[in-house]
Amino acid sequence: MWHNDFPALAALAARGITYLDSAATAQKPAALLLALQTYLSQGAANVHRAGYRLADEVTSAFEACRDDVAAFIGAAQRDEIVFTRSATEAFNLLAYGLEAQINAGDELLLSPLEHHANLLPWQQLAARRGAKLVWLPISASGHIDMAAASALFTPRTKLLAVTQLSNVLGTLQPVRELCTLAAQHGALSVVDGAQGVVHSSVDVRALDCDFYVFSAHKLYGPDGLGVLYGRHHLLNQLPPWQFGGEMVLQVSRDSASFQAAPLRFEAGTPPISAVLALRASLAYLRTLDRSAVAAHEALLLQQLKTGLDQRAGVRRLGDSDAALVSFVVDGVHHADLAQLLDEQGIAVRSGQHCAHPLMATLGVAGSTRVSLGLYSQAADLERFFTALDNALALLQ
Ligand SMILES: Cc1ncc(COP(=O)(O)O)c(C=O)c1O
């Protein structure tokens, strides 16, 4: 349906490649290419610095993207949106910024579903401060077990960091309930929306989270750009963590004072062309009927699950709610399978998906992951299944 809006898909098809790795990064709509072409061919300028007309125009367009992102995720204020280089950088910013609020014996609640980006910064913080990581249990279907979770919140819980949608299992997590529990216990909540923002309508106020993080490149936007949402007063309690141009109010030889959020977290020249490109992607997404997109993705997910379940020896991991499925095959190594799929033009992810603790929890060495974008089509999955059958005929 929306396939033709993504020029790279025709180029990939011409090379015989079927792209089923959109959870790693998404293909880009023509609107993004046009925005980049326009900006880069009609005059670049730095933002927030110079007073001439061209710089003002680029700064206005850059700041308009902050408004668009705020509206896209339901933030109360535009200055609750911080542009970072990636989701990963946003988690690191938080883990450094929150350091002074975490003390020895404090507990940080995480789930075993977390991507390393939403695990390692907290692991390092816990090690620096003598805090403890506490793990929320998950059910066989790959959902955080709320009954068990509620018992794990204690007066020592200082922070909850959870994914909205697992990048390995495709399971949607009860983040609203968890964030509410965190608030009731005086703990801060951080939601990893890197996958969730792509496949569900996000309203950070309805989610009741303190911080929400995602990467533009998975949301049909450019790479090199992440977004950190934080409640206004909380962001302003965090110290800056990178220092340099444009994040300051006043600098003397020996000291400096800093801007309020978000600019205090945007030291140096930001990724200007990426921000302008994201603005175009969001404008494109606004033209779509998002419930039609969700229905389309749900049909494809069902086709994917059914097809996998029909094949002997194939076992899905968890029970996906959205847009991606990981699976293992009895007696077949995921790397061998990925190679045979690649030889037939099928681009899927294989390995541990930056989630080693989850793999250990599930007791598997790795898996194969098929993930969909709004541009994916039933024919893509048909080609995948043909290739899978060919591969399994050789490997099983
Ligand atoms: C759930 C989740 N969180 C965080 C990340 C990290 O995103 P990035 O590599 O863009 O910083 C990813 C990327 O795969 C992800 O899937």
From TrEMBL:
It comes from the Bacteria. GO terms for biological process: cysteine metabolic process. One of its GO terms (molecular function) is cysteine desulfurase activity. Its EC number is 2.8.1.7. Residues 18-384 form the Aminotransferase class V domain. InterPro entries: Aminotrans_V_dom, Aminotrans_V_PyrdxlP_BS, Cys_dSase_SufS, PyrdxlP-dep_Trfase, PyrdxlP-dep_Trfase_major, PyrdxlP-dep_Trfase_small. It catalyses: (sulfur carrier)-H + L-cysteine = (sulfur carrier)-SH + L-alanine. Its cofactor is pyridoxal 5'-phosphate. CDD domains: SufS_like. It is an enzyme of class 2 (transferase). Keywords: Pyridoxal phosphate, Transferase. Belongs to the class-V pyridoxal-phosphate-dependent aminotransferase family. Csd subfamily. This is cysteine desulfurase. The lineage of its organism: Bacteria, Pseudomonadati, Pseudomonadota, Gammaproteobacteria, Pseudomonadales.
